[in-house]
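Case study 2.
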Amino acid sequence: MDEVSRAMRAGETVEEQQALALAAAEEFANANVEHCRDIGRHGARLIRNGMNVLTHCNAGWLAFVDFGSATAPMYEAQSLGKKFQVYCDETRPRSQGATLTAWELAQQKISHQVIADNAAGHLMQRGKIDLVIVGSDRTLGRTGEVANKIGTYTKAVLAHRHGIPFYVAIPLSTLDWTLKSGMKIPSKNGMKAKFSEPGAPCKSRMPGALPPANAPTCASPTRPVELAIPASTSPGRAHYRDHHSGRHFQTEAVMGPAPGTWVVGLN
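Prediction:
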C-alpha cells in the first residue's frame, strides 16, 4: 500500500492517480510472483523423491499472488517430477491447513494428508516425517527470529528433538529491521470467541470449548533463532539500511550447513 500510495502522488487528476495505482499494484503482484518462484527454485533441492514433508498453516498461493512461500518448493519439486507426500497440520483454531493448504495441494495434484495438530510428534517419532517447511508472518532481520502461526514453535521443538530439518520460507515482505527481540513482536490474542464457538470458524465438526472455559491462545508466537534452521529463500546478496539507527546490513542467501543454523536470504 505504501508503494501504491507513493506512485499515486505523481498523478494530477483522479484518473491519473487511478492508472498509476493500478500500474503500481500490477508491478507489485508480478514482483511477488517472481519472488515466490525464486523461493521455490531455491528450496526445491530440499525435497527428494519419497520424502514426507510437514507444513503448518497456509503459506501457499492463496496467501500470495501465486506459488506461495512454504509451498513454492513443493510446487517446483513437483514440476521437476519428484514424488513426495505432504502432511498438512489442521492448524487450529481456524483450520487453515485442513482447509486452505489441503485444498491447494489437491488442486496441484500433490499427494497429501491432513493430520491433527498433535499428531506431528507421533509421526516424527516413527520416522514418517523427513522435512518441515513453514512460512513466516514476521522475521527479525537483526536476530533471525521468526513469528508464525500458533503451533509452529511446537513443530520446531519437535523437529529439533528428532533431528529433522526445519526450514522457513521467508518472503521479503515479512522482514522487520526495527525490532531487536522476537518477544517484542505483537501476538494476535483475543482468539477466545473463535476458539470456543462449537464448529467455528471453518464448520468443523469438532466440538469447541464449552463455557465457561477460557481459551488464551496466541496466533503468532515467536520461534527462537536456535530452532529456526536454514531459510529457504531466493539466492543473492542485499544491502539494507536501518532507517531508525542508520546502520547498514548485508545479507547473503545461502543454504545453512546443518540443523541448528540460521541463514536469512534476500533477493
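Helices lie at 2-8, 14-43, 72-79, 96-108, 120-125, 152-162, 192-196.
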